[in-house]
């Protein structure tokens, strides 16, 4: 387990800019392709607990660098070819988090979704920023799983220990989205 959030209805309408989770918006075409051509080592997912239309993607963009039109576009505006991912309550979508995507959230729409990513330890530094950039490395060592049954305790402690080791091995991973 790398990331696990409960996403809820906001108090105010807002949206996220077009982005790839592990590639800075200032990346050149060559830098994007270098990262996109490496294994992802994880899958990101979203499970809608209410009907949800907040995830907007550019299909198949996880396999290519941004076009010049995508680079020049208003980061909060619609882009030709975009697709709104329409989930019914109980639907789940798995995706590569380096697909070009954004979130659009309305205070007038009930929203609750579980969102996370899971990966494999052998991804090492290629997935460290995905796992640790949200501050996980700052608190994960404080997680106490002693109340879990033994069958789950070992798994939870193992996941925690791998995240701690990833943080020690990779140090300060920074953030892909600095602006």
From TrEMBL:
Superkingdom: Eukaryota
PANTHER family: PHYTANOYL-COA DIOXYGENASE FAMILY PROTEIN (AFU_ORTHOLOGUE AFUA_2G15850)
Protein name: Phytanoyl-CoA dioxygenase
């Amino acid at each position: 387990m790398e990331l696990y959030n409960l996403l809820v209805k906001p108090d105010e309408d807002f949206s996220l800019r077009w982005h790839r989770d592990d590639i800075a918006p200032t990346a050149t075409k060559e830098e994007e392709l270098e990262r996109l051509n490496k294994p992802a080592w994880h899958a990101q997912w979203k499970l809608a607990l209410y009907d949800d239309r907040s995830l907007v993607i550019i299909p198949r963009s996880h396999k290519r660098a941004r076009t010049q039109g995508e680079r020049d576009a208003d980061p909060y505006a619609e882009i030709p070819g975009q697709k709104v991912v329409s989930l019914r309550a109980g639907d789940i979508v798995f995706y590569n988090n380096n697909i070009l995507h954004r979130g659009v959230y309305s205070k007038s729409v009930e929203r609750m979704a579980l969102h996370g990513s899971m990966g494999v330890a052998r991804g090492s530094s290629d997935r460290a920023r995905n796992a640790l950039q949200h501050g996980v490395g700052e608190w994960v060592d404080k997680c106490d799983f002693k109340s879990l049954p033994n069958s789950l305790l070992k798994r939870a402690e193992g996941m925690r220990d791998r995240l701690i080791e990833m943080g020690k091995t990779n140090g300060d991973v920074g953030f892909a989205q600095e602006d």
